[in-house]
């Protein structure tokens, strides 16, 4: 069970961040409103929130997931793969220093948290433009010290591994075509191409957060018996962001 979450508010220069979406410029006020809705959903899931102020040095800073991988034993502070994001992890490390043991991914390694998909005690590590061979090797070594297993998956068509697949809990995944057969013998909802964005969901305790506006994926998830909370994510989608990106769960 998760009890806490760390988040960061979007800054006024949020639209200056990295994106490949090509679906328009985000509306800042709407992004703030949607971020508040996301926070409210996490509170409904039973979490105590630590919400950091926006940092204008880092337009992508609200996507805190990329700065750490959190387990019961340790917070692994990453080294973001985009040059413009290097440094975001520094304050996150300070936040975690008062909570639990921390270790770091070091040069020449790069790891983005969005490339790390956890299923119980196994971690799938996406090898993408943001997570390199050296970073993946360091992460695998750290995880093994704490009894976790890991494997690598090549990421080709989306920015991060979790841009295209997430773990719903109860042994089930939701995925785009690229990853639907790469995670072994588990039940996977393979979604239609026009609803690819809905592949990013966030399991929090007794709930599953899903993005609003994807009726076919929603019905397939409901058919599996999940207790869902729909969250509007349109302004984060414009910046390649999604549900898992906006928080670090503890």
Q: Termini distance?
A: 9 Å
CATH superfamily: L-arginine/glycine Amidinotransferase, Chain A
Determine the number of helices (DSSP H or I, runs of at least 4 residues). 5
Largest sheet, if any? 3 strands, mixed
Helical/strand content category = alpha/beta
Round the Cα radius of gyration to an integer and report it.
Answer: 17 Å
- Average pLDDT reading: 97
CATH architecture: 5-stranded Propeller
Compressed to H and E, one letter per element, the order equals EHEEEHEEEHEEEEEEHEHE
Number of domains: 1
Helix proportion of residues, in percent? 10-25%
CATH domain topology:
L-arginine/glycine Amidinotransferase, Chain A
Shape: globular
Total count of strands:
15
CATH class assignment: Alpha Beta
Structure description:
The chain is α/β, with parallel strands linked by helices and 250 residues long. 21% of the residues lie in helices and 26% in strands. It has 5 helices and 15 strands. The chain starts with a strand and ends with a strand.
Would you kindly provide a brief summary of this structure?
The protein is of the alpha/beta class. Helix content is 21%, strand content 26%. 45% of the residues are buried.
Considering the chains and any ligands shown, give keywords for the structure.
3-stranded mixed beta sheet; L-arginine/glycine Amidinotransferase, Chain A; 250 residues; alpha/beta; 5 helices
């Amino acid at each position: 069970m998760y009890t806490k979450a760390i988040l960061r508010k979007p800054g006024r220069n949020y639209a200056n961040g990295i994106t490949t979406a090509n679906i328009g410029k985000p509306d800042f006020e709407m992004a703030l409103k949607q971020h508040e809705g996301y926070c409210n959903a996490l509170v409904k899931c039973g979490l105590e929130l630590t919400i950091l102020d926006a940092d204008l040095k880092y337009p992508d800073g609200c996507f805190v997931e990329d700065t750490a991988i959190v387990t019961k034993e340790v917070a692994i502070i990453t080294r973001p793969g985009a040059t413009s994001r290097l440094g975001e992890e520094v304050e996150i490390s300070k936040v975690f220093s008062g909570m639990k043991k921390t270790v770091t991914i070091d040069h020449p390694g790069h790891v983005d948290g969005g490339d790390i998909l956890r299923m119980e005690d196994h971690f799938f590590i996406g090898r993408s433009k943001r997570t390199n061979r050296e970073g993946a090797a360091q992460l695998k070594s750290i995880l093994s010290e704490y009894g976790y297993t890991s494997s690598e998956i090549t990421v080709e068509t989306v920015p991060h591994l979790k841009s295209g697949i997430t773990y719903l809990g109860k042994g089930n995944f939701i995925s785009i075509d690229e990853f639907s057969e790469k995670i072994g013998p588990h039940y996977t909802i393979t979604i239609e191409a026009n609803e690819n964005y809905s592949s990013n969901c966030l399991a929090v305790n007794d709930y599953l957060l899903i993005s609003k506006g994807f009726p076919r994926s929603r019905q397939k998830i409901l058919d599996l018996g999940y207790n869902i909370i729909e969250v509007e994510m349109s302004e984060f989608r414009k910046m390649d962001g999604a549900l898992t990106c906006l928080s670090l769960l503890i």
